[in-house]
Amino acid sequence: MMYGCEAWTISKQTQKKLEATEMWFLRRMLRISWTAKKTNDTVLEEAHTTRLLISKIRKRQATFFGHVMRREKLENLVTTGMLEGKRSRGKQREKLIEGLTDWLKAGKSLEAIEATKDRKKWRTMIANAVKQGT
């Protein structure tokens, strides 16, 4: 289901769609009719869970990003967006690193890139972000 999610850039709109899909799945699994007036919070309480889909995707992205940054090859340049050439016109696309730094609360993207070099530090950052949720 989530093959290749490591390379997705998740915008606010995409995140809302994923959360709506996850809620739809939960309601279907719990056999809650769409006419039943239950809030999403009560559905999550009945399922004894929190929103898992976004946090799993972000965790997979962060582990993949750390792996790529430690290799220091062509994938590193592509992922960070540090390629030669002109920028395209219009609004710039969101980069994977920007979404991860927001999720990890790392401040600047350069701090996140530096943190990937120390594997233990990177893993603790990921673990803390997963505990805090999205």
Overall mean pLDDT: 82
Q: Structural class of the helices, strands and pairings?
A: mainly alpha
| Number of alpha- plus pi-helical segments | 7
How many distinct domains?
2
Distance between the termini: 20 Å
Number of strands: 0
**What's the main sheet like?**
none
In quaternary terms, these chains amount to: single chain
Shape: elongated
Keywords: Endonuclease, Hydrolase, Nuclease
GO molecular function: endonuclease activity
Protein name: Endonuclease-reverse transcriptase
Organism: Plakobranchus ocellatus
Give a concise summary.
With 134 residues, the chain is mainly alpha-helical. Helix content is 62%, strand content 0%.
Fold topology:
Blueprint: H1 12-29, H2 40-47, H3 53-71, H4 74-80, H5 96-104, H6 109-116, H7 119-132
Defining key terms:
mainly alpha, 62% helix, elongated, Endonuclease-reverse transcriptase, endonuclease
Write structural notes for this entry.
This protein is mainly alpha-helical and 134 residues long. The chain has two domains: 11-47; 54-84 and 94-132. The protein is built from seven helices and no strands. It has helices at residues 12-29, 40-47, 53-71, 74-80, 96-104, 109-116, 119-132. Helix 3 packs across helix 5 (96-104) and helix 3 packs antiparallel against helix 7. The model has no long low-confidence stretch (mean pLDDT 82).
